[in-house]
Amino acid sequence: MAKVDKNYEFYIKADLSEYAGKWIAIVDGKVVASGDDPEHVYMSAEKSAKDKEISLAYVPRDELLILVVVG
Question: 58 and 23 in contact (C-beta within 8 Å)?
Fold first, then answer.
């Protein structure tokens, strides 16, 4: 559970403006994949994450927050 918290904290605090309008996958407090299709982003993250927890989130263009925890 600590990794999910770490990923959530990263998502809330990080400057993710370069990913606005995109889905991102976060592992160990780092963005490991990004793109327009959440399924593709998750599958890309699985390749590098091994057995680690992956948090999938949408980076809004405005002040909307969507966080999906997978793991």
Answer: yes
Calculate the CA 70 to chain-centre distance: 10
Query: Which residue segment(s) compose the domain that 38 sits in?
Result: 2-70
Report pLDDT digits (tens) over 2-29.
Answer: 555 889 899 989 999 999 999 999 999 9
How far is 38 from 56, CA to CA, in rounded Å? 8
| Contact predicate 41/55, CB 8 Å | no
The pTM of the whole model exceeds 0.90: no
> In total, how many domains does the chain have?
1
Assess contact for 59 and 25: CB atoms under 8 A: no
